């Protein structure tokens, strides 16, 4: 057996890449890396217990050269007795249509095609094998470091993850090409790989060779560092997982996916004192993960976002910041609440439909739609013996003390309510805070206002400016009826 094949098979065994699976979808471009991977797997398919399914993507960028690569891969698969399906995808058009770079579009096209076949065979166990090698790891680490990254980027490319295996990660490009030469196996050379138009090519042709001039084992050392980073990240992830679980958040469950999509309540709460008691690194990683869970993923979530969230440690209840991707985090009585903002925006949209002006006409008895229920408004002469007993959801106003027509709406920034006979006022937001009304529910509390003055915060308090006095002649009766048809008489 060739020494290269023995090395690759040993790596496969070390990471149990094909344990419990019958099928392997192998991506083959025709280049040296993927041809060597296909050759090893084809020669040892019986030993590995695999059925191979090759997928080739013609990116339709290089014209006749791309077609030639496709024909070569198809002929090689026929020689090896392996099924092969080729996909012709206009990657440049795909990039233009989606706003992706050509590199990103090409990668998406490949993995979409791989996954399409893998999902069809998943009942019998199937993984995707791709031909990343140690040089790819080094290039990825350098690329991620240059653009800014944490341990997740420094660790580079992992051997097994999410149904994708990489059997060549223990090998470098020199070993791969030497193996093919020893066995007289031809491979295709993509001319664009020799151009520096793409970021990775510049790292491959300029940066990495310079590092190898400094130390001939630069690639090996970078890969070793990546492995150490992977071990440290795994330890840190376990610490983060344990903390989140202590807060009732199990991100390994389906309803707590990293993307935050369809995550049940779409809110995650953590106790701030418990979080601050953790090591600073754990705090940062916890916050970053929670931001990712409500912001559509971790892409582009960096230190700056984490620092802004940590500033909320000393903020008042109700304070918050918007996050990328419609996420939001706010303080709520000793907790940090991470929420998918679209849920709150939906609430706001619903309540805005209910916020209509109510012009009081003498003698009118009418029902108005209000957030969470209905508001009944009646105007009548003050009867003898009017019962002004305090009731939570029925209030009486002096019609003549109302300067402007009443408006039924919800909270707006800057709202104030008069709290004493001398005209002293209080922020409605402070009223919510004192009453421990959660920040996400404040937009659903009905308010009755006269111009910029709030007359009644339903369920909390009535303002002093329009209260009934001994001289009141005309009564405005406001009765809030909840959706559950309970008319509170307290």
Can you walk through the features of this model?
With 490 residues, this protein is of the alpha+beta class. It is built from 16 helices and 20 strands. It has helices at 3-14, 32-43, 45-48, 64-80, 91-98, 102-120, 134-147, 151-154, 173-182, 199-214, 218-246, 272-276, 280-294, 303-310, 341-354, 428-434; strands spanning 23-27, 51-58, 83-88, 126-129, 160-161, 164-165, 267-271, 320-323, 327-332, 335-340, 365-370, 373-381, 394-398, 406-409, 416-418, 425-427, 447-450, 453-457, 461-462, 474-482. It has a six-stranded mixed β-sheet with strand order 3-2-1-4-6-5, with helices on both faces. A hairpin with a 3-residue loop joins strand 18 and strand 19 (461-462). Helix 7 (134-147) packs across helix 10 and helix 7 (134-147) crosses helix 11 (218-246). It starts with a helix and ends in an 8-residue tail after the last strand. Mean pLDDT is 83; it is low at 254-264 and 342-355.
What is the radius of gyration computed over CA atoms, rounded to a whole number of angstroms?
33 Å
Shape descriptor: elongated
Kindly state the percentage of residues in helix: 25-40%
Give the strand order, joined by hyphens, for the main sheet.
Answer: 3-2-1-4-6-5
- Characterize the main sheet: 6 strands, mixed
């Amino acid at each position: 057996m060739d020494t290269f094949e023995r090395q690759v098979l040993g790596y496969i065994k070390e990471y149990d890449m094909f344990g419990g699976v019958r099928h392997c979808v192998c991506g083959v471009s025709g280049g040296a890396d993927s041809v060597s991977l296909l050759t090893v797997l084809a020669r040892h398919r019986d030993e590995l217990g695999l059925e191979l399914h090759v997928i080739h993507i013609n990116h339709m960028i290089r014209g006749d050269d791309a077609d030639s690569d496709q024909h070569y891969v198809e002929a090689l698969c026929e020689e090896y007795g392996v099924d092969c399906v080729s996909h012709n995808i206009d990657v440049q058009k795909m990039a233009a249509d989606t706003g992706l770079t050509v590199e990103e579009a090409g990668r998406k096209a490949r993995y979409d095609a791989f996954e399409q076949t893998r999902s069809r065979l998943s009942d019998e166990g199937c993984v995707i094998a791709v031909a990343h090698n140690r040089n790819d790891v080094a290039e990825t680490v350098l690329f991620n470091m240059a653009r800014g990254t944490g341990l997740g980027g420094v660790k580079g490319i992992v051997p097994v993850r999410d149904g994708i295996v990489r059997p060549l990660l223990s090998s470098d490009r020199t070993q791969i090409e030497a193996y093919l030469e020893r066995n007289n196996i031809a491979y295709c050379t993509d001319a664009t790989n020799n151009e520096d138009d793409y970021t990775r090519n510049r790292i491959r042709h300029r940066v990495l060779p310079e590092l190898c001039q400094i130390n001939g084992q630069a690639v090996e050392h970078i890969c070793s560092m990546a492995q150490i980073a992977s071990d440290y990240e795994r330890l840190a992830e376990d610490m983060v997982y344990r903390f989140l679980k202590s807060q009732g958040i199990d991100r390994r469950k389906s309803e707590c996916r990293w993307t935050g999509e369809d995550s049940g309540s779409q809110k995650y709460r953590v106790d701030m004192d418990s979080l601050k008691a953790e090591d600073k690194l754990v705090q940062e990683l916890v916050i970053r993960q929670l931001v990712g869970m409500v912001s559509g993923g971790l892409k582009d979530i960096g230190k700056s976002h984490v620092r802004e969230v940590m500033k909320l440690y000393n903020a008042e209840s109700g304070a918050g910041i918007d996050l990328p991707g419609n996420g939001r985090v706010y303080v709520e009585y000793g907790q940090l609440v991470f929420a998918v903002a679209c849920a709150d925006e939906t609430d706001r949209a619903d309540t805005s439909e209910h916020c209509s002006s109510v012009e009081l006409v003498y003698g009118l008895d009418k029902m108005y739609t209000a957030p969470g229920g209905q508001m009944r408004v009646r105007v009548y002469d003050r009867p003898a013996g009017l019962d002004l007993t305090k009731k939570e959801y029925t209030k009486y106003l002096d019609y003549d003390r109302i300067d402007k027509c009443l408006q039924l709406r919800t909270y707006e920034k800057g709202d104030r309510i008069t709290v004493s006979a001398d005209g002293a006022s209080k922020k409605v937001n402070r009223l919510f805070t004192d009453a421990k009304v959660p920040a996400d529910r404040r937009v659903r509390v009905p308010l009755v206002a006269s111009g910029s003055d709030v007359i009644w915060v339903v369920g909390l308090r009535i303002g002093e400016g329009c209260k009934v006095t001994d001289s009141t002649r005309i009564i405005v009766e406001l009765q809030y009826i909840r959706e559950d048809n309970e008319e509170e008489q307290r």
